[in-house]
TrEMBL record:
Residues of the MYND-type domain: 160-201, 472-514
Native organism taxonomy: Eukaryota, Fungi, Dikarya, Ascomycota, Pezizomycotina
Keywords assigned: Metal-binding, Zinc, Zinc-finger
Transmembrane segments: none
Organism: Zymoseptoria tritici ST99CH_1A5
Protein name: MYND-type domain-containing protein
């Protein structure tokens, strides 16, 4: 995510709006946030070192991604508020954003940064009451909001002296084993703060009244604001030591990373084994020499595509558009309505529900499908490219979720390769296994959403095993182990994956088609009944003729017998 850098004059105005005491408080708050990022980086290299991420299953669910994302957003907000004094926070936020993007393919929420900055500035101008509605799970976000806006009428809580986290409901803070003064949320924070706290750590009996404050609480007198001469030199140091020298190294509340250091050097190589970091392997590994071939020019694409293939891809794109319409309706139904309160600024940090998460990920895959089809079809797929990019932009803005461009490029390459294959070679094409190996995943780790995406890719590549499967008439989802297609209740011919697809397809086009089919079937039934009646009538007429013939034959036989009897009587009388 690219951010526009404010002008020097704007930074000076922002600095002038905050006095020295408030600036020192914000700097200390930003240092705590950087400590929290530093702790998470250490947990990333060694998950067993942190109690919260010691369980491999929890770590595989990417629980650290939203936390690092929140830290990057807070550093961005503090950097914008502090102006030139916040350049260290801006640089730290950029490093966290780079790690966030390369490891989890996530980006920061720009709107959230703007809301935090706007709310803080509005509070500085007027004393408007601000309400923050947070879930119990998001303790760290709530802690930061309370610290940023100190006017909230909340009970002060003890915080960790290193990362500033508040204790959970079922957990208490632990004290330093030496002086028993600073509090820590876990053993890892105590170890990471040991180097800075050790000079001030004393026995409880020898501790002076000046040492009653936690060692990580900075003395505001030591934090100096840069002078005008420093500003003219191109910026100021965030803080200075007691001897007046600028501290450019790793300090108590900061971490440094040179610009030439690759992100993968921050992670130990022994932590990249499959049992630890399966989802993070491809993103945290060193860059390999293998590269993806560039797609051919659009003219070559159009030349190798037949009319039948183009029609098939256009039909497939229409299925994806229908699927996107369905997923948007699912998200609108699952989303919680936002309550507006007059005279209050409400920042909601509640986590999404499971239905919302499902709909969001389905929309992400829809955008990815549309982008793939748009790249293959070129000019014929402009509508697919437009809808895919618009959906991705909306997801990035609202939920910080984007598509994977490498997967799109692989699917396009597979499609190009498929055009030169016969059916036998196509049956050996295993795109799913290739993409799983590239992502560092195992086949058993796929959920049903990813399975549907890979099944769609097999259908795109015309893999023989996938072409013959039945699919939903509205969204194109194929039958699978987790999905059973059901026929329309009226015509008994059209198949659907669920009730939603049937309703949406009925309103869109199937209603008229199904009624015409019913009328046609009714007409055929009437014609069949008429034919049967006609045959029955014809059969009855023929039967009547046969009966008449039988009667005539009986009459003739009777007459013949009577004639014979009369002749026999006359013969007998002559003999007498």
């Amino acid at each position: 995510m690219l951010f526009t850098s404010p002008s020097p004059r704007r930074r000076l105005r922002e600095m002038a709006a905050i006095d020295a005491t408030e600036r020192a408080r914000l700097i200390k708050l930003g240092n705590r946030v950087m400590n929290h990022v530093r702790k998470l980086r250490f947990c990333l290299t060694d998950p067993t070192a942190c109690e919260q991420y010691s369980n491999g299953d929890d770590f595989m669910r990417w629980d650290m991604a939203p936390i690092i994302q929140g830290d990057a957003e807070r550093l961005r907000a503090l950097g914008r508020l502090l102006g030139l004094d916040g350049m260290t926070f801006i640089n730290a936020a950029q490093e966290a954003e780079d790690l966030l993007y390369h490891a989890w393919c996530r980006q920061v929420f720009v709107k959230k940064i703007e809301v935090l900055v706007a709310c803080y500035r509005q509070h500085r101008v007027s004393s408007a009451v601000t309400t923050f509605v947070c879930s119990d799970d998001d303790k760290y976000s709530y802690t930061f909001v309370v610290d940023l806006f100190q006017h909230l009428s909340v009970d002060p809580k003890q915080r960790c002296a290193f990362c500033n986290e508040a204790p959970a409901q079922d957990k208490a803070l632990m004290t330093c084993g030496g002086c028993e003064i600073p509090l820590y949320c876990d053993r890892l924070c105590e170890k990471m703060d040991r180097k800075a706290h050790e000079p001030n750590c004393k026995e409880p009996s020898t501790a002076s009244p000046e040492d009653t404050q936690p060692a990580s609480e900075d003395n505001t007198a030591e934090v100096e604001v840069g002078s005008e001469d420093d500003e003219e030199d191109g910026g100021v140091s965030l803080w200075r030591t007691e001897n007046g020298s600028n501290d450019t190294g790793s300090s108590h509340f900061s971490f440094t990373c040179s610009g030439s250091t690759h992100l993968t050097t921050l992670v130990k190589s022994d932590c990249l084994s499959p049992e630890h970091l399966v989802p993070f392997q491809p993103s945290l590994r060193h860059q390999t020499t293998s590269t993806i071939r560039q797609p051919p020019e659009p003219a070559i694409f159009m030349a190798i595509m037949t009319a039948a293939e183009r029609a098939r891809l256009l039909e497939l794109g229409q299925f994806v558009l229908n699927r996107l319409e369905k997923d948007c309706a699912m998200l609108a139904k699952a989303a919680h309505p936002v309550q507006k309160e007059e005279g209050r600024i409400v920042i909601r940090l509640n986590f999404l529900s499971e239905d919302e998460k499902t709909a969001i990920h389905l929309m992400k895959y829809d955008a990815q499908r549309l982008q793939i089809l748009g790249e293959i079809l070129n000019e014929d797929g402009t509508i697919f490219t437009t809808e895919g990019n618009r959906t991705e932009s909306w997801l990035l803005e609202k939920y910080n979720i984007g598509t994977k461009k490498t997967t799109n490029a692989d699917q396009v390459e597979f499609w190009k390769l498929r055009q030169t294959m016969d059916e036998f070679l196509a049956s050996t094409l295993d795109t799913t296994q290739h993409l799983l190996e590239k992502d560092g995943r195992l086949e058993g780790e796929m959920d049903w959403k990813l399975q549907d995406f890979f099944a769609w890719g097999d259908y795109l590549q015309r893999v023989p095993a996938a072409v013959g499967r039945q699919k939903c008439a509205f969204c194109g989802d194929q039958e699978a182990d987790h999905r059973v297609l059901r026929a329309c209740g009226s015509c008994k011919k059209t198949l659907y994956c669920d009730r939603t697809c049937q309703k949406m397809h009925w309103r869109k086009e199937h209603k008229a088609v199904c009624k015409k089919a019913d009328k046609a079937e009714g007409t055929e039934d009437m014609k069949a009944e008429e034919r049967q009646e006609r045959k029955a009538k014809e059969g009855g007429a023929e039967a009547g003729k046969v009966l008449e013939k039988i009667k005539e034959m009986k009459i003739e036989d009777n007459e013949t017998e009577e004639g014979k009897m009369a002749d026999s009587k006359e013969g007998n009388q002559g003999l007498v």
